[in-house]
Design a protein that fits this description.
Layout lengths: L1 E2 L6 E7 L2 E6 L2 E6 L19 E5 L5 E5 L6 E5 L2 E5 L14 H12 L6 E5 L5 H8 L3 E6 L2 H13 L7 E5 L2 H11 L5 E4 L4 E3 L5 E3 H12 L9 E6 L6 H16 L2 E10 L6 E11 L2
Parallel strand pairs: 1-16, 4-5, 9-10, 9-12, 10-11, 12-15
Antiparallel strand pairs: 2-3, 3-4, 5-6, 7-8, 13-14, 15-17, 16-17
Helix pairs in contact: 1-2
Length: 287
């Protein structure tokens, strides 16, 4: 498992009984987590002294029960500064387990010995985008949600990367890639974090298990002649790491060589010593 252990401003304090107790800077949140189904003693005092808790509704969705929490604040991960904003559907705009992937991408870029052009699809609030930019890459950031792209630009500005070579694109990822193919534009590295389920601009239904492989077949067409890496993240529990390996091996290794490694992502819980599973990632590298 790739555990994100480099955080100082974030900490998974404890998890169990379907919830996780987290420290985000100086604020403590309790959020639901479908993986934490074990029953462990809640010894940590912040289970009773939290700043906000996301309470599920019996009819679906839920809401934040706040005691003392601002609408937004900032946390840092190494040279990145990220804006945290608790959202209606339990999320905060930052997925801390992804730090393991940010570290991977930054290391690949910094040791490439050449300019690197990165395409980040389903790029959300842009932590991976600004990680790549901080490492010296030019990045194309694509997400269909205008609000998420605006949030990503805030994160870039907060990280001192407002003038970095980042293209900010609000568009359907599939339609954008099709246009890039027609334009003859290519990228040395691709990052993607596709949703489990979604709808396209014309109402098309996206189901990860059905659409991911055809989408990958499309995306590999915008790789350069000497690609550096390809990173897929999946929070869908139904996709085992080996499935990501097989897809990347099939589409990339036979053509470019290199090798693929896939594994679970996780967050270590400081109180219990457990590592909370947080999906999987597949990484193809040319070296």
């Amino acid at each position: 498992m790739w555990a994100s252990t480099g955080w100082k401003d974030y900490e998974l304090l404890d998890c169990g009984r379907g919830e996780k107790l987290e420290r985000w800077g100086k604020y403590t949140l309790i959020r639901p987590d479908p993986q934490a189904i074990w029953n462990t003693p809640r010894r940590h005092p912040n289970w009773k002294k939290f700043d906000a808790r996301y309470a599920r509704s019996n009819t679906g969705g839920g809401q934040w029960v706040k005691k003392d929490l601002p609408e937004r604040w900032q946390i840092r991960y190494k040279e990145l500064t990220l804006n945290v904003k608790p959202m209606n559907f339990k999320h905060t705009g930052v997925f801390p387990e992804q730090a393991a992937n940010w570290d991977f991408a930054m290391e690949q870029i910094r040791t490439a010995g050449r300019p690197v052009n990165v395409l980040n699809l389903f790029a959300y609030t842009g932590a991976a985008t600004i990680a790549c930019a901080a490492a010296g890459a030019a990045v194309c950031h694509v997400d269909a949600a205008k609000g998420m792209v605006s949030w990503a630009r805030e994160n870039a500005k907060s990280s001192g990367l407002e003038q970095a070579p980042i293209r900010w694109i609000v568009d359907d990822c599939g339609k954008f890639v099709e246009r890039e193919i027609r334009r003859g534009r290519h990228y040395d590295a691709i990052i993607m974090d596709p949703p489990s389920y979604g709808r396209g601009p014309s109402g098309e239904i996206w189901k990860l298990e059905e659409n991911l492989y055809p989408f990958l077949e499309l995306v590999v067409q915008v790789l350069s002649d000497q690609p550096l890496f390809f990173l897929i993240n999946s929070y869908t529990t139904g996709l085992a790491p080996s499935v990501l390996t097989y897809m990347l091996e099939t589409l990339l290794t036979e053509r470019y060589g290199g090798h693929t490694v896939s594994d679970e992502l996780g967050l270590p819980a400081s109180d219990s010593g457990l590592v909370l599973p947080c999906g999987a990632a597949g990484r193809w590298t040319s070296r």
